[in-house]
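In these records, each integer encodes one residue's backbone shape. Here is one protein:

___
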Amino acid sequence: MPCQLLCDGCDLDRECSDWLEANRQASDHEAEYADHWVMIRDLQRA
């Protein structure tokens, strides 16, 4: 299922092919920027 990453602390807006990839990228982004929070949005439910 395609997902979209959206960050509350910067202009991150990225599409991923599946939830596992999105979760990995979100975790990496939050680890690099401790004050950012990344939302993973299911594009099939949008």
